[in-house]
């Protein structure tokens, strides 16, 4: 696919549609509704969570989230905001979403600390004008926010390297 060199910004209507997809994504998460959550993804989507676990396709995204919404995420609350949008073509965009989660529990029901993270989406515009998630990679951010971890390439940032103390 050839990138459209003129596609550096999206029209306001497309940015609004992306924000609507984020709103639906958050509402479905907070309702703990795996089916509604999956509808924010394209039918052939790729999803990767913070642990590197992958699901391919809308049905697999739903199946992956249903047990978590019934257990560890049952009382969770997710908020988020679009950090940036970059148009790749007229129908593809890279979207970064900052998120915060509260109310998560361990499998035994013990409360877990609040989390923050960054979602990277590749979104695809549909013929209806809606935008759906085609690719999603989720990342937990370290306490203290972006950049609070060891510098990239430092021994503490490499597998087996020293840890920050």
Overview of the structural elements:
This protein is α+β, with helices and mostly antiparallel strands. It has helices at 12-31, 34-38, 58-69; strands at residues 41-48, 54-56, 77-87, 92-102, 115-125, 131-140. It has a single domain (12-142), classed as Nuclear Transport Factor 2, Chain: A. 22% of the residues lie in helices and 33% in strands. Strands 2-1-6-5-4-3 form a six-stranded mixed sheet. The longest helix has 20 residues, at 12-31. The chain is globular, with a radius of gyration of 17 Å.
Structural class: alpha+beta
- Largest β-sheet summary: 6 strands, mixed
Question: What is the C-alpha radius of gyration, as a whole number of Å?
Answer: 17 Å
CATH third-tier fold name? Nuclear Transport Factor 2, Chain: A
Question: What is the β-strand count?
Answer: 6
β-sheet strand percentage: 25-35%
The CATH class turns out to be Alpha Beta
Stretches where pLDDT is under 50 for at least 5 consecutive residues are: 1-7, 161-165
Helical coverage, percent range: 10-25%
The CATH architecture can be named as: Roll
Mean pLDDT score, rounded? 88
Work out the helix count. Answer: 3
Indicate how many domains the architecture comprises: 1
Order of helices and strands: HHEEHEEEE
Biggest β-sheet: strands ordered side by side in the sheet: 2-1-6-5-4-3
């Amino acid at each position: 696919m050839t990138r459209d060199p003129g596609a550096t910004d999206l029209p306001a209507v497309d940015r609004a549609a992306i924000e609507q997809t984020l709103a639906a994504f958050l509402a479905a998460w907070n309702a703990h509704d795996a089916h509604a959550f999956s509808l924010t993804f394209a039918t052939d989507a790729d999803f990767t969570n913070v642990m590197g676990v992958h699901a391919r396709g809308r049905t697999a995204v739903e199946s992956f989230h249903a047990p978590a919404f019934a257990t560890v995420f049952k009382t969770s609350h997710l908020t988020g905001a679009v950090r940036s949008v970059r148009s790749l073509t007229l129908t593809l965009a890279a979207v970064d979403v900052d998120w915060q989660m509260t109310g998560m529990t361990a499998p035994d029901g013990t409360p877990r600390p609040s989390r923050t993270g960054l979602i990277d989406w590749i979104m695809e515009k549909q013929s209806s004008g809606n935008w759906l998630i085609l690719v999603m990679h989720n990342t937990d951010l370290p306490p203290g926010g972006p950049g609070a971890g060891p510098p990239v390439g430092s021994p503490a940032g490499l597998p087996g390297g020293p840890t920050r103390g």
